[in-house]
Amino acid sequence: MQTPPEPINENVIRRATKQLDNADLIKSSFWISQVFMIIATVVGVFLAAQEGLSQALLFDALNSKEKNYYLQHALADEITDNITTLNEYAEFITKGGAPHDLKPYHPPLDYFVWENMKYSSSSLETPSHILSAARRFNKQSTKLVKMIEARQYGRKFGANLITELTTEIQENGLKQLIANYTVLHQELAEAGVEVNKL
Fold first, then answer.
1. Domain encompassing residue 176
2. CB 72 within 8 A of CB 184
3. Are the beta carbons of 62 and 178 closer than 8 angstroms?
């Protein structure tokens, strides 16, 4: 036996059939407010993107400066150590009683930083005249030691050339390198980046 259907509530029918009031859609103020809302959204997104981009570029620039600072500082330390080693070698080969064969007393020059700079993206951010001075110093110091050991240069003459070379790099390349990374340190400090002053 079928159950009789439930009586239909008239309020439900009235709500379902009631038409929406479209008066707001006809008013021009509605459309103007919608247009301004869209413009405000687009401008807000654009400004947020611009600010995000400028912050990303600033972070990248500071990160690059920090890497370059540490690289230049390490290179300056390596050159300083090599200058000391070469000056000690020049003094050793000219003093009385120095051994005849100098090959066992080959000066232990360091090229760790210089060799590893080829793998660093920060290397070429160092000014080219500084890199050129460091390259010439490394090349000439190696050549001078080989020529002294091969007896192509006399000891005193070779020692004088070594002294001239170390003086040249100290007065030009090394001073410029130290001045350059000191500026980087100041710029990083002003931007609020803490770097170890090695």
1. 64-190
2. yes
3. no
Q: Is residue 73 part of a domain?
A: yes
11 domain residue, yes or no = no
Other Cβ atoms closer than 10 A to 46: 10
**Residue keyed to tokens 């000056």:** 87
Q: For residue 180, which amino acid is it?
A: N
Please state, in angstroms and rounded to a whole number, the distance separating the CA atoms of residues 130 and 120: 16
CB neighbours of 148 closer than 8 A, spacing ≥ 6?
93, 102, 155, 158, 159
Mean pLDDT by groups of 10 residues along the chain of 198 residues: 59 53 62 82 82 72 85 94 95 82 88 91 87 94 93 90 95 92 89 72
pTM for the full predicted model: 0.72
pLDDT (0 to 100) of residue 24? 52
* Alpha-carbon distances of 130 from 59, 64, 102, 139, 180, rounded to whole Å: 26, 18, 31, 14, 9
> Which of 70, 77, 79, 192 lies closest to 126 in space, CA to CA?
70
The answer to the question of residue 19 being in a domain is no
Name the domain count of the chain: 1
Would you say residue 70 lies in a domain? yes
Please tell me the distance from the alpha carbon of residue 101 to that of residue 151, in angstroms, as a whole number: 9
